[in-house]
Amino acid sequence: MAKEDQKLRQQAQRLASLSLDSTGQVSPARVSAVLSSLAARTVAPLKQRALLKQYEAAVKRELGRSQVIIEHSGPIADDTAAIIAASFSTKTGRVISAVTKPNDSLLAGIRVILGDHVYDASAKARLDRLAAAS
Amino acid sequence: MSSVLDQIKQEIARLDTAAVKKNTGKIIQLADGVARVDGLSDVQFNELVQFPHGIRGIALNLEEDSVGCVLFGDVAKLREGDECQTTGQLLVVPVGLGLLGRVVDALGQPMDGKGPITSTESYPVEKIAPGIMPRKSVDQPLQTGIMAIDSMIPIGRGQRELIIGDRQTGKTTIAVDTILNQAKINDQFVKPDGTFPEGFRPVYSIYVAIGQKNSNIARTIRVLEEANALKYTIIVIAPAADNAVNQYIAPFSGAAIGEWFMNNGRDALIVYDDLSKHAACYRQISLILKRPSGREAYPGDVFYLHSRLLERSARVGEKYGNGSMTALPIIETQAGDVSAYIPTNVISITDGQVYLETDLFNQGIRPAVSVGLSVSRVGSAAQIKAIKQVAGKIKLELAQFRELAAFAQFGSDLDAKTKSQLERGGRVVELFKQPPFSPKPIEEQVAVLWAAQNGHFDSLPTAKCTALSLSLQDFLRTRKAALLTRIRLEKALKDDTIAELKSAVEDWKKTVS
Amino acid sequence: MILPSLLAQAAEAAHSVAATATEHSASGNTFGIEAKYLALQFFSFSIVLLVLYKFALKPLTATMDERSHKIADGLRAAEDMKVKMAESEKKQADLLKSSQAEATAVLNEARATAKALVEKAQTEAASKADEFLKRAEANLANERAKLIAEVRAEATNLVVATVAKVLATELNDSDRSRFNAAAQRELTRSN
Known about the structure:
Largest interface: A-C, 30 and 26 residues
Largest sheet of chain C: none
Strand content of chain C: under 5%
Order of helices and strands of chain C: HHH
Distance between the termini of chain A: 47 Å
Number of helices of chain C: 3
Number of strands of chain A: 4
Shape of chain A: elongated
Distance between the termini of chain C: 163 Å
Strand order of the largest sheet of chain A: 2-1-3-4
Oligomer: heterotrimer
Largest sheet of chain A: 4 strands, mixed
Radius of gyration of chain C: 69 Å
Number of strands of chain C: 0
Order of helices and strands of chain A: HHHEHEEEH
Helix content of chain C: over 70%
Radius of gyration of chain A: 19 Å
């Protein structure tokens, strides 16, 4: 069972690396190409589903490496995303793209998510810190 | 009330406005107290991971694409998809004198309802044992109060002595008797202000209950309380109802608490009751973490589990803390099989064992110590001179007695010397019987053994020797207290002490014959 | 020895009487006493006496001597026993005296021990009472500390909730955008 899981994982990893473009970013066109080729296979549905789930996780991981999600509450300047993306690109040495996402639960401020690293400069985080400190 | 508000105002003023960086992960699988987490790319081995609802875990399995974390406490509130984050810290427990007299759980949280633990320091639960240079050889005695052990299998401060036997053979009783004796000795020397005189080293005890029934733990606590020993004891509990992770961590927490005493010039005694259940919990955790299993389904590093725990008990030199931690691990065997996996592991780690036999227990010899199979690798280096003078030959005599005991049925066909050896051996066996939770002070042991070795019990009936030895102790305690004090302080039997002892024993004999 | 001589004398007297009796009888029988029968009677009487002496008197006197010896012995023994009894009584009295002295000594020791024990118990009880009081005070202090900690936690939660609510409703877009700009600076600086 574990060996099969490992095989699927490795397969999904290979497919995910195929979904990257020349700059190392996840390319939507390539992702759809991979998906259509998978759909064309005649494999048992359960196996197919397992592989697709692993592929999704692998693509998410790749996205996490190359894309920041900028959550904000309230309006942000137009160039915020670009500035932050550039800053992180220099920091990580990779090409990072940015995506913005409004999130009112932050009350005010910005939260940047890069993979599993979270950089929180929102008011909510400060209030949470105050609550945790006591 | 105003102080509360002031504190909150201070917290608000202290609140810093910098961005917070965290490394997060998401639970992808949650079962049996173990969470498999996706993410946590910065996590380190054994790092403390914070989950929602105040639940904490430690990262034990760092795999290619997921992290296996074992969770503490009630995990019913967690769900798949919950977010967790690293803390950058190791699991720590509060340590210090503020824990004396308290009952805490595996994480150092108070369980006795007496309020929060007053402690200014925290020690990490997992710590590397002292190396070679900090160690000092073991030469201070740790008196257990059990005559059979103190005379023939002496334990020193800084030694690891295993207590091994089947179920219901008195293993916990021996450990509790030792704790009671340390408290008794501490009370003899303590000054009214609670401090100890120069030159006296009190022994503080830590009792770690792993996988025990709550009723047993409650009974032990009650025994310690009634004997006024709880004020020198810390109790760390991870009862059978706790999850396996708490039971796995509890001995390490106890060791961390004991290390504080060792590093601060004090002597500690730690009892692990028992390590068989600890190994079983570790097996459960390892199997759930899908680690490969080996003999008897234990993981491959079950030896390392116990060796790193027991190696932390040592005696350290002056520059490194000038203290000691003596360990009394307890192992339960099945049907007397000491060659099973876990017992052989722990026997090879410890500096000796006290082997308790069911047969002896059923025959009425309690404590059921098998003198032939028990050993202390420190030996007489950890005995005071007085005991060495009276008990030097007892082990040999008992061995000879055991050899001859097979011939005891041919009572009429034996020569006088054999008969006398059998009689003497039988009396010595009777003298070593002792009721539970009544440790004998070392000076009384010296007196009783001296009387036995010099034939003062030879004219008395063998069957009554146990009661007679108690009566001798009583006599000495009430009417010859000065003599006992002298033996205790001098720690050796000088000629005038022996003469006084002789007259005292003869006086006592008049009252019993 | 006396008797035989007496008997011999009696026989002589009998003979002489017999002789005179015969003389008298020869002269005439005035009393009806024949002298020769009297003589014979005396003779036979002396034989009887002799026989009695040999076979009855001697053993009789021997037995009587024995009896008187026994009586004398018994009396002597009684005397001895009296002396011995007197001695043993004296010994008993001495023993009683010495054991009484020992008992008194033991009693005194026991009393002293009891006194010491009572004192010890008293000091123990006093110290236990002290301990009890101290523990009760410590418990009170603990309870208070617990309460204060709880109140503080509650108060902080209230503060946080209030602030969150206030910020959610009171902040307008310009405030937010100012905050976001500051946050952006913070994030890019720490990088």
